[in-house]
Each structure stands twice: as structure tokens, then as C-alpha cells.
Design a protein that fits this description.
The complex is a heterodimer. Helices cover about 40% and strands about 15% of the residues of chain A. By secondary structure, chain A is of the alpha/beta class. The two termini of chain B are about 45 Å apart. In chain B, helix 9 crosses helix 11 and helix 13 runs antiparallel to helix 14. Chain B is built from 14 helices and two strands. Chain B is mostly helical. Classes of the chains: A alpha/beta, B mainly alpha.
Chain lengths: ~375, ~300
């Protein structure tokens, strides 16, 4: 009898909990303000950033804090997916800005998580390379959703002692020569790397853009990655994990970001990186402004500062990537001789065009047909590959 | 006021309100028990059961793929893809399999250790052993897992030692073997302590009686000691099994190319893919597994040894 009563009470509480849970619906209002600011006001004293590891080094953040009084707090994300999630968590007002790559920026724009920016308030923008002033991944209908920051290729990293001769093709990470010693990023966008390789080695598939894959092309790429899996030591989630794998001899070859190369080189490890003959995927990052930013003035001050030649050069050399501001080149050579040429900051447009930049796969292939697979499918396939 | 009433009661005058209330309570034992228990029970219901209910409900929701907003309409799609996709089945089986392997390993390691400590070792050594068992728990879980990562790495301490002994090298770093070793190490104290208590509770006289009646050492172990200590073993296994089942840090740090646990998929769906409903659906799997496990454990009398 008593037990029965308790059960009824518990049921009532459970129903109450359901009602509460159901009531906590989402607030759909995206406050994308169409009115752009015409001048930058006084800083709010704080700036919360979601950034790639290595994008907010004290070398260039300290001078900014001193100059503007905006205290920078950064949260590092390991993947574009994580960045999107962080920008949406807690109603989207937790972070002011995000250093989104091209495969996240459009998702943030369409989701109403970021708002347009007045580039006239950012003098450095005029010195950007033309391709990255209004690229399609951050500029929609003539509205700029942030400013470009840096770009670069995803490279093939290898141990010069164990990997001879020096690799010239991505086939080294798909063939069995280095079985159990290969590492690649734990990231669905890695499917594009396989697609890029297939576009050169298997032309009959007709892959033109590694981010626009139909069912057959996607399955071929996924099959290649499934065949690659037995060769993999570990799918790395953080760039520092990859450095560990190389340092301890667990991996000798793999796909990498330049920061891992930089870390290992400064640790005197016998490593080198290369862009194989099939070309490379790459990233072009944008500092984007949250639609519900609590510190918009500091955010504008940051965009203004980070577009200037000096911080551009500092970040480029520190991370090992290419600045968007063309005036950064001479400053880079001041920091490290030859770094401007090494990091392609003065390279012709053809170099930029040879990199297949990350973008969000959508079902629209651009040819009017909607038979491409969108990013949700990519995510599922990636889980399938990892098993 | 309260003091006045107390004085009134002492003076034997007509009972005050407090006195009458307490007498009224005295005649209603169920209400008394209810009032005493309601704060902890309220806490339990609100914090624990409500959270579970919210989890179960959100497992039936879905996420709009483009805006990542949660769609509040009922669908069994999440459970369907859990059952249909061989990937998730594989991950669930891997998680349960390694949890079971870790439990068995820890049981085999813990029993002789606890027996030696309780029955053979003299008092002072017994205390020292107990401290040694608990000592690892003083340092952070992460530190211990990272230490193992360094030991098991290709150029790590293990291969270095094997090389010095001219035994070649092994390739266990970043694999399911590494996870098995690390989990077995990390949860071992949680098995030793309940087994220790259980063996301590078995009267020496029973073992002597078995011997006196001509039972061999093996038979005494099998038919007297083991059945009596079984509840402790089962209690310990609840810890090792459930702790392994819910972990996702060790697979991330020491696991290899195919080492995802249920926890990793849940973590990625919440923190990376922003698909909370699917994470909730997958999280029900370990809940069901543990529910069954606890029912079996109760049958075996584990809760008497906790």
C-alpha cells in the first residue's frame, strides 16, 4: 500500500519534470542586427574568444590588452564542429568571437549565430589579398560576417629518419608501407582529403570539388578511408597529441597542421613537412562576431588590431601559416629571415588557387542538382569509418 | 515562546501546541517517517530522478541538421539508428566487452591479494598493504593515465626495459590492450576493498572445520571461502564494471584507431556535434546494462557486503 503511494508520487514528480523539460524550449529569435556601427566605442574591458590552439599567444595578445584594456579570455576548440557548438551553447552569448574556418563559417551565418561587421572600421582590411576580402565563406549578399585572418594548407608530416625516400604523394598514408605508424586528424572534414587524392588518382569518379561529393564519390572516399584504418595508429584530436605520437615514435607519417611541425622542429625532432603532388586541402579562417556578443566594442578593437601588419606577421610566423594582410611580409622577415617566402606570403594567386579550402559540404552541388551529401552525412560516415 | 512552552510542560500545566503536535505525530508513525525522510528524498527525486527523466525524454527528440536547434516532437529515430547502424552496436559491444574483461582481471588479481593481506600477513604489514592499495587514489586520475601513456608508448619505459632484457619490443601503446591494462590498474583498489572486507568476515573456524573434515585446500577454497566471499567479489565487480562502462577519458588518451567507447560517442554528440537527443539515446544503453547487472548482483547477495 505504502509502496504504491510512493510510486504514484514519483510518477507525479516525473511528469512534472517532463513538463519543465518540455517548457524549456529554445528561444529562436536570432538578433541579427541589420544596423552596422559607424564607429568603435570604448572597450568593455573583456573579450571572450573561441580560438584554435595557437591563435591567441601572449606575444600579440598582451600588446592588445595593454593598448585597449580589453582582457582576452580564450577557449580552444579542437575542431570546427566544436567551434559551432561552443558558439551556440548557453544561448550564444558566452563568447564574443570565434576564429572559424571555412567549414564552420557558413553554418554559423545560416544559423544566425554571428552578425554582420562593418569592415570600414577595420583599416587593415584594405590591405588584404583580394581573394580574402569578401570570400564566399564569410561574405553573404555583400554582408561581411567578420574579417579573414590567416590561411594555409594541411601538410604531410613525416619523420626524416624512418621515412625514406621523402614522400611526394598522399599515397604514403593510404598504402601499407608505414602500417601502424600513420596518424590523421579525428575530423569528418578528413573525407575531403581522401576525395582530393581520388580526384587525381581515379579520374573516372569525376570528383571536381572534394567538398561536393555525390553518393558514389562519397562512398569511394569513405571506402578508401576504411581501407586506411588498419594502418592508423591513432586519430588525433588535438595537435599536441600528434606531436606526442611523433616524439615517442608511435607515428612516423601523417596529415598535420603546421603548428605540429613547428612544435616538433623547435624540439629538434627529425621531421619535415611537404605538400604532395596531388595538392592539399587547407583552411582560411575568419574572426567572426557573435550575434549576441556582450563586448562588441572590444570585438571590433580586436578585429582592427589583428588585421594590422605586425600581429599578422607575428601570428603567421608563430603558427606557420599565411597572413591575409599583404603588408605583413617584410615584418615576417624581420622576425624570422626568409619566413615570408617560406610561408608563401608573397606567392602569386596561383598558389592560393591550388589549395582546396575547407568549406561546409551542402546538398547543393552548385550545378542545380541537389544530389550532393551534406555535412550531417559526412559526420555519420566518419563515425562509421572509426567504428 | 518555545521556552515558555517548555516551562509549561515541565510545570505539568495543560500541554502546549508543540507538545500536542508531537503527540499527534507520535500516533502517526508513517507521517513521522515521511517528514524525516522528505529532505533527502526530495533531493533524490529532484536532482537524480528528474535528471534521468529529462534524459529519457530528450532521447526521443531530434535535432534540426541545419540550425542545430532541438526539435521537440516525438521520434524513435535515435533508437532506430542505434539498432540499425552496425557501428554503434560494435561500440556498445566493445565497451561492455572491455568492462567485463577488466572486471574479471581485477577479480583474479584482487582475491589472492586480499586473502594474503587478511589471513597471512601480520598486523603491521596488513596496515601497510591497505595504505598501498589506497595510495594511488591520492593522485589524479589523469596523471595516472598519462603515466601509463608514457610507459606504453613505442619509445616508452616498457619497451626500453624489454630492450635492455633483450626481449624485443611490444606494440601495445594506443590500442585496446593498452585500455585493458590501464583500466585494470585504475579500478583495482575498488575491487580489493570489498573483497578484503568479505574475506575478513568469513570466520576462521569454518575454514578449519573444512580442513578437519578432510577437505583439501582447493576444496575449502571452492566450497567454503569462495561462496562466502562471493558477495564481496560481486560488489567489487559493480564498481569496476560500471566505472569502465562510463569512462571516456582513458579511451581518448590511450586508445588506438578503433577504441571509441559509448562515452566517447556521447561526449562527441554533446560537445562537438551538438546532438543531445542522440547522446541521450545512447546513454540509455549503459543504464540498461547496469540495471540488469545490479539485478543479478542483488540475487548474488552483493548488497549485503557493501
Amino acid at each position: 500500500m505504502q509502496a504504491h503511494r510512493w510510486r504514484r508520487a514519483a510518477a507525479a514528480v516525473a511528469v512534472g519534470a517532463l513538463a519543465v523539460a518540455a517548457g524549456c524550449g529554445s528561444d529562436n529569435s536570432s538578433s541579427s542586427n541589420s544596423k552596422l556601427p559607424t564607429k568603435i566605442g570604448k572597450g568593455e574591458g573583456q573579450l571572450n574568444l573561441v580560438a584554435w590552439e595557437g591563435y591567441t599567444q601572449s606575444e600579440w595578445v598582451k600588446p592588445f590588452e595593454k593598448q585597449t584594456g580589453c582582457k582576452v579570455k580564450s577557449k580552444f576548440a579542437g575542431s570546427s564542429d566544436e567551434m559551432v557548438t561552443l558558439m551556440r551553447q548557453g544561448g550564444g552569448s558566452q563568447y564574443d568571437m570565434v576564429s572559424a574556418s571555412g567549414d564552420a563559417s557558413l553554418r554559423l551565418i545560416r544559423g544566425g549565430d554571428v552578425k554582420p561587421v562593418n569592415v570600414k572600421l577595420i583599416p587593415g582590411w584594405n590591405d588584404f589579398i583580394p581573394q580574402l576580402q569578401s570570400p564566399s565563406h564569410n561574405t553573404v549578399d555583400g554582408k561581411h560576417y567578420g574579417v579573414s585572418v590567416q590561411w594555409g594548407p594541411n601538410v604531410l608530416l613525416y619523420n626524416t629518419k624512418s621515412v625514406t625516400p621523402a614522400p611526394t604523394s598522399w599515397s604514403t598514408i593510404y598504402g601499407s608501407t608505414y602500417k601502424g605508424k600513420v596518424t590523421v586528424p579525428d575530423n569528418p572534414i578528413q573525407i575531403a582529403d581522401a576525395a582530393l587524392y581520388l580526384s587525381k588518382t581515379n579520374p573516372s569518379l569525376g570528383i571536381k570539388d572534394p567538398y561536393e561529393l555525390n553518393d558514389k564519390q562519397l562512398n569511394a572516399s569513405v571506402d578508401l578511408l576504411k581501407k586506411q584504418k588498419p594502418l592508423i595508429k591513432k586519430y588525433w584530436a588535438l595537435s599536441s597529441d600528434e606531436s606526442d605520437l611523433f616524439k615517442n615514435g608511435d607515428a612516423v607519417i601523417g596529415a598535420a597542421w603546421p603548428i605540429a611541425v613547428k612544435t616538433l622542429e623547435s624540439d629538434n625532432q627529425p621531421v619535415k613537412d611537404t605538400i604532395p603532388k596531388e595538392g592539399a586541402t587547407g583552411w582560411a579562417d575568419t574572426w567572426m562576431l557573435s550575434a549576441k556578443a556582450k563586448h562588441p566594442n572590444c570585438a571590433y578593437l580586436w578585429m582592427k588590431y589583428i588585421s594590422e601588419p605586425k600581429p599578422q606577421a607575428q601570428q603567421a610566423v608563430s603558427y606557420g601559416e599565411t597572413p591575409v594582410n599583404e603588408k605583413a611580409c617584410p615584418l615576417m622577415d624581420q622576425i624570422e629571415k626568409g619566413s615570408c617566402a617560406r610561408l608563401h606570403a608573397n606567392a602569386p594567386a596561383s598558389y592560393f588557387n591550388s589549395i582546396k579550402f575547407w568549406k561546409t559540404p551542402i546538398s547543393d552541388c552548385g550545378d542545380g542538382k541537389k544530389d550532393c551529401k551534406d555535412y550531417t552525412v559526412w559526420q555519420q560516415k566518419w563515425q562509421e569509418i572509426k567504428g | 515562546m518555545a521556552g515558555d512552552q517548555g516551562l509549561a510542560v515541565l510545570a505539568g500545566r495543560p500541554p502546549g501546541a508543540a507538545r500536542r503536535f508531537s503527540a499527534w505525530l507520535f500516533r502517526r508513525p508513517w507521517l513521522r517517517a515521511g517528514l524525516t525522510l522528505s529532505p533527502p528524498l526530495g533531493w533524490f527525486v529532484l536532482i537524480y530522478l528528474a535528471a534521468l527523466a529529462a534524459l529519457l525524454v530528450s532521447a526521443f527528440w531530434s535535432v534540426d541538421p541545419f540550425t542545430s536547434e532541438i526539435t521537440h516532437s516525438w521520434t524513435t529515430e535515435n533508437f532506430k539508428s542505434l539498432i540499425d547502424e552496425p557501428t554503434y552496436r560494435e561500440i556498445a559491444l566493445r565497451t561492455i566487452g572491455i568492462a567485463a574483461a577488466v572486471t574479471v582481471t581485477d577479480a583474479i588479481l584482487a582475491f589472492p591479494f586480499a586473502y594474503f593481506a587478511v589471513r597471512v600477513a601480520p598486523g603491521r604489514i596488513q596496515t601497510a598493504l591497505f595504505v598501498l592499495v589506497l595510495l594511488p587514489l591520492w593522485s589524479s586520475y589523469l596523471v595516472r593515465v598519462y603515466a601509463w601513456r608514457l610507459i606504453l608508448a613505442h619509445d616508452g619505459a616498457l619497451n626500453w626495459s624489454l630492450d635492455k632484457l633483450h626481449l624485443g619490443s611490444v606494440n601495445v601503446g594506443y590500442s585496446n590492450w593498452a585500455m585493458w591494462i590501464v583500466f585494470s590498474y585504475i579500478w583495482l583498489p575498488f575491487m580489493i576493498v570489498p573483497v578484503w572486507t568479505a574475506i575478513e568476515r568469513v570466520p576462521e573456524s569454518l575454514l578449519e572445520a573444512s580442513m578437519d573434515l578432510g577437505g583439501s585446500a582447493w576444496r575449502t577454497f571452492r566450497e567454503v571461502l569462495l561462496p562466502l566471499a562471493l558477495p564481496g567479489l560481486v560488489a567489487g565487480s559493480i564498481f569496476t564494471f560500471s566505472l569502465t562502462l562510463g569512462d571516456y577519458i582513458t579511451p581518448t588518451l590511450v586508445g588506438g584507431a578503433s577504441s571509441d567507447f559509448i562515452g566517447n560517442v556521447v561526449y562527441r554528440n554533446v560537445g562537438v556535434a551538438n546532438n543531445v537527443p542522440f547522446a541521450a539515446a545512447f546513454a540509455t544503453v549503459p543504464m540498461v546494462v547496469m540495471g540488469v547487472y545490479l539485478l543479478v548482483a542483488r540475487r548474488l547477495g552483493a548488497f549485503e557486503a557493501l
